[in-house]
Design goal:
70% helix; single chain; mainly alpha; 202 residues; 6 helices
Length: 202
């Protein structure tokens, strides 16, 4: 059951991420400008597919949590991250996703942003829990790489959003953070599906 759930997780995360990416890059203009979440706002060409892709990705995160239920803390963190990701998909921000302290915001903007940011923090926590576990598997090593990349990139993004606000540099870092998160989710799901995550595994 865990193997099938893990493979389903990899498929859902991949399909969700690809759907989001297509919605992001399909419109005319540079896809490197602004926050990724802007693709899901009203007035954009493909807001519904983007938001559906994010919800599908959230389902994939939840499936990975179910597949790793033997690692209770990791499973709980992934389930929380999935709820936050789904919330981010359901509650869209307004045009250009304004953020304080530089721009006037709405309740939807705050809810969307908080869910997105906290969800990534919780996801990084799940990575760290696997990395610090007593597993001796490729998944543990993958989690270590994920933490080493995710923590400094996430911190850089947070500081940039607070100190600089909207910027091309912040947009680049955000995309790198999301690429690391998706790569780790898919990689861990595939390793779990191949029985690469278990106590005492090789």
């Amino acid at each position: 059951m865990s193997r099938g759930t893990a493979i389903g997780s990899a498929a859902a995360v991949t399909a969700g991420a690809v759907t989001m990416l297509v919605a992001l890059v399909a419109p005319a203009g540079s896809w490197w400008d602004g926050y990724v979440s802007e693709a899901g706002t009203a007035g954009q060409p493909y807001p519904f597919p983007y938001r559906c892709g994010l919800v599908l990705l959230a389902v994939g995160v939840a499936l990975l949590g179910a597949a790793l239920r033997s690692l209770r803390a990791v499973s709980a963190a992934l389930l929380v991250a999935s709820v936050l990701a789904a919330t981010s998909g359901v509650v869209a921000c307004t045009d250009r996703c304004p953020l304080p302290p530089y721009e006037p915001t709405t309740v939807a903007d705050v809810v969307h942003t908080a869910a997105s940011v906290v969800g990534l923090v919780v996801l990084a926590g799940a990575m760290a829990l696997i990395w610090l576990s007593d597993l001796r598997t490729a998944a543990r090593r993958l989690a270590g790489v994920g933490v080493v990349l995710m923590v400094p990139l996430g911190a850089t993004l947070g500081v940039t959003m607070l100190v600089v606000g909207r910027s091309g540099f912040g947009a680049l870092v955000e995309r790198l953070v999301l690429a690391v998160a998706v790569s780790w989710l898919v990689g861990t799901a595939l390793l779990t599906g191949s029985r690469g995550v278990r106590r005492g595994g090789r």
